[in-house]
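Input record, target 12 of the design panel.
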């Protein structure tokens, strides 16, 4: 393995050291390698375009927001062909969480995620995608 030298602000170096210790990494190099791999995977869109994937989408919004719930239901029905499952739960008596399981082409998954992000008053949208064709796990969709 090659050894390289990089420059970075002291504050970032401290964050890397804290992260490595907290998450059980052997040191800075392992954290930087993992971060670099993740960054490359995120931008290697050509590997995922046009392929079928599984995707989970988590949506969080404040409790008792019927307008949000209605809009999410409309999005869910608009993308019915790729939605395999949904579940709704309450978190800390303050938030609702919708979990969607999707299966389809990258373009359709991206459309679903972007439509959910466009719903007003949604607190957070997170997703994870895994290829059905190969081992490209946790690719990110360009939005």
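The sequence produced for target 12 reads:
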């Amino acid at each position: 393995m090659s050894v390289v030298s990089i420059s970075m602000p002291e504050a970032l170096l401290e964050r890397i050291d804290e992260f490595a210790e907290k998450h059980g990494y052997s040191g800075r190099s392992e954290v930087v390698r993992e971060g670099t791999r993740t960054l490359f995977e995120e931008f290697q869109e050509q590997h995922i375009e046009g392929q079928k994937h599984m995707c989970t989408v988590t949506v969080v919004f404040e409790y008792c927001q019927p307008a949000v719930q209605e809009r999410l239901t409309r999005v869910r029905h608009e993308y019915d062909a790729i939605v395999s499952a949904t579940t709704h739960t309450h978190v800390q008596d303050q938030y609702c969480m919708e979990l969607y399981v999707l299966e389809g082409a990258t373009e359709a998954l991206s459309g679903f995620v972007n439509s959910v992000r466009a719903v007003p008053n949604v607190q957070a949208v997170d997703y994870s995608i895994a290829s059905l064709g190969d081992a490209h796990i946790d690719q990110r969709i360009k939005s």
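The helical segments are 10-23, 28-43, 66-78, 106-117.
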